[in-house]
Amino acid sequence: PPRFNGGDVVVLGAGDTAFDCATSALRCGAGRVYVIFRKGFQGIRACREEVEVAIQEKCELLPFHSPTAVRIDEKTGKIKSLEVQSNQSSDGEHNGSASIQCCAVISAFGSELAPGPVRDSLSAVCDMDKWGYPVVDPMTQSTSEPSLFVGGDLGGVTKLTVEAAADGKLAAWYMHKYLQDLEGLTVPEEPEMPGFCTPVDQVDLSVDVCEGLRLPNPFGLASAPPTTTSAMIRRAFEAGWGFAVTKTYGRDKDIVTNVSPRIVRGATSGELYGPGQGSFLNIELISEKSQAYWEQSIRELKADFPKEKNVLIASVMAAYNQEDWEILAKGAVEAGADALELNMSCPHGMGEKGMGLACGQNPDYVEDICRWVKKAAVRKGPDGKMESVPVFAKLTPNITDIVEIAKRAKAGGADGVTAINTVSGLMHLNSEAKAWPNVGSEARTTYGGISGNAIRPMALRAVSAISKALPGYPILATGGADSAAVSMQFLHAGASGVQICSAVQNQDYTVVQDYITGLQALLYMQSREDLSDWNGQSRPIEEARENPWVKPYPGKHRLPDFGPYHKQKEHLAAENRKKEPLPMPPANFGARPSPQPSKAIPSINDVVGAAVPRIGAWHELSQKEHVIAEIDPDLCINCGKCYMTCNDNGYQAITFDAMTHLPEVVNKDCTGCTLCLSVCPVIDCISMVPRDGPYVPKRGIPIE
Q1: What is the pLDDT of residues 666-689, one digit of tens each?
Q2: What would the 3-class secondary structure string for 473-493 be?
Q3: What digits encode the pLDDT tens for the residues 245-271?
């Protein structure tokens, strides 16, 4: 990036690109930035957020002006000023002109096909419209000349860079089609442009779960609303999901009819509306569709999505009845299911019928049911020999010891377990003592199942505990996975696959593409020594702190962030940015070709259970290695939150200056509880550093 070293910069244009350039120029050391455009404020095409950021960062906006000349310093050969003229006129005369001192001019306005060599060349080979632009087919970007394709500014329609890029992609496909046609070759009717490909995209995400079950990637849909019908599962597979678990179904004699309303946003994130919910609560039961529907759906799906491409797991439920479980298992296996999931954990409704949670809370029932189903889950394989279909028991968290239930599932022959189902709970009791959801004129409710990020700690606890107690035992995790980073947490805790529901309810099936790319990146980064100090996909803290826009001036200036202190602080920051205008040191970041991996990229199986050896009993934790809090005054915003929480919830180990509002840790009183760091609103402002000397607790009354 350029170094402006305090010089002024002029940006021409009023679109998103122009305002991006303006704010970027400030980050590259510009002292002041002028944004000049021909129309008024109503003619600004940039989104409101971009404009507001530019105004907040003190960019100067100059409407109704156009550039007329650029003045060059004869001695240096560099720009010294820009001449501009007002577009507003009275009686045909311009109202005035001005000269703006600057060191750089950035042109960021759209281009037009003006009279000249380009237009003349186009008109010689293709049809032109009355405005002097080529006649373009918007579906193919082709012209009357078969070998000529036009897009972007030359087409006279596109106004945005992103639209021009879309024109280029579309034209590229039809250029390919044109060239193939010349050789008598055919291409698909539907354009299929290859995606942007890097070494990250080549990372293999397949994982061996157990004998007979290999997932193409560890991301699957849980048995939940996202798998309500076979058509939905089909769309999910097309979107990239590695596996899916059908909505749980039972025998026709146990068919259900749901109530409404039944799926509501959680109350764990406060008054948050729209997508991004931290939890959901539902009182939905199992599938309303028949056993025959699901068995036919399994046949149809497996005919189009073979096991090597997508794995389909049938979720079934019955009461403690051997015949029912065997009938369901045999039906699903004969239909072609790649594995079975035994739902013994639904927390509401089904337990009242002796199903779901009523079975999963009884260790004897769990072992017996797994044994019945495992014996029944066999079929003739492609080679004519009998093969066993993998069986997973879905466990309930609504129990004292989930590990004991997992042990009994294994004893019954289950190939693995799914942990966990939703957590039983109640939400949204309003001032009229009515819960939400409530059903009917009496506004009655029942305890429902909580899902989403709110239950992630419970799911991680269950998965890691089972993995530690049963090393190597296959686990499919579910409960609060909403990103590649979180999914990696579940893999590290011991899961081989991750089932997802609430994140899809917050958005749609396409989230899986973010998860796939994100997990590939996390695995790839482990093969690069030069990225070993990164935290996931985030730069190291120390490297980020070198950014003068994060830590704008040396720590010797202990100044608060309000009143006259704020102005003094801004002045020091500006002076420092003139010396170091680059937001990040250039180093090797973005170098091409990129550094090559120095070791093998780990597989999914390599990272499964990596965190488990570090998880244990409390008495195994070190009582000799202690830390205390350290506050970075340059990042502190003087909110006082650390002082308040320490004073009223901890050990009164932080002082707060009445004048400057600067907090300071009293090292001898700090016990390293970390509560201050947990509530601090500024990332990395508070860190935990080793205590100088042993920790001696204050016992109140001495112990004899």
Answers
A1: 999 999 999 999 999 998 899 999
A2: CCEEEECCCCCHHHHHHHHHH
A3: 999 999 999 999 999 999 999 998 888
Cα separation, 674 vs 627, in Å, equals 9
**Spatial distance between the Cα atoms of 473 and 489, rounded to a whole number of angstroms:** 17
- The dihedral over CA atoms of 427, 433, 438, 440, expressed in degrees to the nearest 10, equals 170
Closest CA to 388 of 366, 414, 365, 411: 414
Contact 214, 205 (CB under 8 A): no
Taking the CA atoms of the chain, what radius of gyration do you get in angstroms? 32
Q: Which residues 6+ apart lie within 8 Å of 258 measured at CB?
A: 284, 285, 288
Q: Choosing from 21, 28, 346, 636, which is the catalytic residue?
A: 346
Q: How far apart are CA 639 and CA 607, in angstroms?
A: 41
What pTM was estimated for this model as a whole? 0.80
Distance of CA 340 to the CA centre of its chain: 30
CB burial of 428-438 (b: ≥16 within 10 Å; e: otherwise) equals eeeeeeebbbb
Which residues on adjacent β-strands are paired with residue 656? 663
Any alpha helices (H) in 580-686, and if so which ranges?
604-607, 641-649, 675-679
Query: For residues 128 and 134, is the Cβ–Cβ distance under 8 A?
Result: yes
pLDDT score for 545: 55
Contact 373, 391 (CB under 8 A): yes
Residue 115 neighbours by CB distance under 10 Å: 8
Average pLDDT score, the chain: 91
Tell me whether strands 497-500 and 219-221 are parallel, antiparallel or unpaired: parallel
Span 116-142, pLDDT tens digits = 899 999 999 999 999 889 999 999 999
Name the 3-class secondary structure at 686.
strand
Bridge partners, 281 (sequence order): 264, 450
Q: 669-672 long-range contacts, Cβ below 8 Å, gap at least 24? A: 670/628, 670/629, 671/626, 671/628, 671/695, 671/697, 672/626, 672/627, 672/628, 672/629
Amino acid present at 118: V
| Alpha-carbon gap, residue 516 to 201, rounded angstroms | 9
Confidence tier at 595 by pLDDT (50, 70, 90): confident
How sure is the predictor about 590, in pLDDT bands with cuts at 50, 70 and 90?
low
* 346 carries an active-site annotation: yes
What whole-number distance in Å separates Cα of residue 391 and Cα of residue 375?
10
**CB-based contact 64:88 (threshold 8 Å):** yes
* Percentage, residues of the chain above pLDDT 90: 73
Structure tokens at 513: 């593409």
- The answer to whether 109 and 45 have CB atoms below 8 angstroms apart is no
Please report, in angstroms and rounded to a whole number, the separation of the first and last CA atoms in the chain: 67
Cα four-point dihedral sign 182, 183, 187, 189: positive
Question: Quick one: which of 510, 509, 532 has its CA closest to 522?
Answer: 532
Give the mean pLDDT of 472-476: 98
Cis peptide before 261 (omega within 30 of 0): yes
